Amino acid sequence: MQATQRKNRLRSYRRELYHPMVSQEQMAIQAKISSKTYGSAERGSRITYNTAQDILAAINQLRKERHLPPVTDDDLGLNYR
To answer: Between the CA atoms of 54, 58, 61 and 62, what dihedral angle is there, to the nearest 10 degrees?
Structure first.
């Protein structure tokens, strides 16, 4: 059985984080999750609620450092259970 995937905006929001640009690996480190898990989330695979919250907190911390407004889990469109 194939894992459920759904299009999300995580990659777009990560790419807004420049000066310096933030890689998938750097996002994973910031979120304290594995690079594999972060990559799966960005591809739309289902992740746990806790992982989604870790990613959201990490992206908002990096956005704050760059004087960008925060995003919500609805903005990201993550596929979590």
So the answer is: -170
